[in-house]
Amino acid sequence: MAYELIELDRDGRVATLRLNRPKALNALNAEMMSEVARALAELEADDGIGCVILTGSDKAFAAGADIKEMVDDNYLDIYKTDRFEQNHCSIERFRKPIIAAVSGYALGGGCEIAMMCDFIIASNTAKFGQPEINLGVIPGIGGTQRLARAIGKAKAMDLCLTGRMMDAAEAEHSGLVARVVPVDDLMDTARGAANKIAGHSQPANMILKEVIDAGYELTLREGIRFERRMFQSLFATEDQKEGMNAFIEKRKPHFKHR
Ligand code: CAA
After folding, report:
1. Which residues does 56 contact at the CB level (< 8 Å), separation at least 6?
2. How far apart (Å, rounded) are the C-alpha atoms in residues 31 and 217?
3. Ligand 1: which residue has its CA nearest to atom 42?
4. Residue nearest to atom 39 of ligand 1 (CA)
5. Probe ligand 1: pick from 67, 85, 112, 138, max atoms within 8 Å of CB?
6. Residues paired with 28 in a beta bridge
7. Among 23, 90, 153, 184, which residue's beta carbon has the most beta carbons within 10 A?
8. What is the per-residue pLDDT across 128-141, written as a single tens digit (0 to 9) for each?
């Protein structure tokens, strides 16, 4: 089925999923997020895809959850539908590597879905924030938790309590984004990173992100034990033999499970 509010392009082993609701600055409504979830399910099942880029427009990655859609919700509406769980959180459940390429506004739910990705590459025009406090609410798709873990309590409190925006340079200094590049270079940089990732062993990529993510919920000792077990498990793959033999033979590896 075709998509109306997102664009999905495949180039080799990299898929780019572009949020495309420009008149609303890519505000995340139910229809768009159901398309995102559907596209991610399609990409998860596609062995030809090794990495995904989630992006928006130059002006807005996404300006947040759609305020107009939820303004009339009462407690029971929003509780019973658990509006954001199923579709928005498909990004955090996605098992292959996924990069957020952010230009312009990444506010509220927009910042939250960028943080659900494995890492963020930002253009110099990117602006991040959790301005929900201005609407009489608080972040509701993980913003308070992921932002505090990413940039520390002081800055997370500052951003969430004041509702101010943080520019790309501050976001990079704070550890929220991995790289900042000029706006015209954003997609080339994201594609370069995604192509490199997609060329690696897929099981190793998937296990790697699972292990790093698990570290947020485990003690150091448990996390290290999990890492060790997962490291050991990769010796059951042909890709481990190929990767190590290729190094010894001074050639490029040709991973079977890409
Ligand atoms: N929801 C719905 N519509 C939105 C929107 C949002 N989050 N953000 C922008 N829009 C719409 C505007 O209503 C406007 O539509 P109309 O032309 O029909 O009036 C259009 O997008 C353009 O927006 P602006 O005219 O406001 O553009 P601007 O350049 O003057 O300002 C902005 C840009 C600073 C990003 C401003 O639009 C803004 O503050 N947006 C809201 C940001 C926000 O509060 N996000 C948090 C949402 S709540 C949330 O995300 C909760 C959660 O965690 C689950």
Report:
1. 18, 19, 20, 26, 62, 102, 103, 104, 110
2. 31
3. 63
4. 63
5. 67
6. 65
7. 90
8. 999 999 999 999 99
Amino acid (one-letter) located at 105: Y
Between CA 126 and CA 23 the distance in angstroms is: 18
With a 6 A CB cut-off, is 89 part of the ligand 1 pocket? no
| Separation of first and last alpha carbons in the chain | 26
Q: From atom 21 of ligand 1, which residue's Cα is the shortest distance away?
A: 24
Residue 199, ligand 1, Cβ within 6 A: no
Residue whose C-alpha is closest to residue 127's, from 185, 58, 69, 78: 58
Amino acid at residue number 211? V
Dihedral angle over CA of 205, 207, 213, 218, nearest 10: -160
- In this prediction the ipTM stands at 0.98
pLDDT in tens, 108-130: 999 999 999 999 999 999 999 99
Q: Is 232 exposed, middle or buried (0-12, 13-18, 19+ CB in 10 A)?
A: exposed
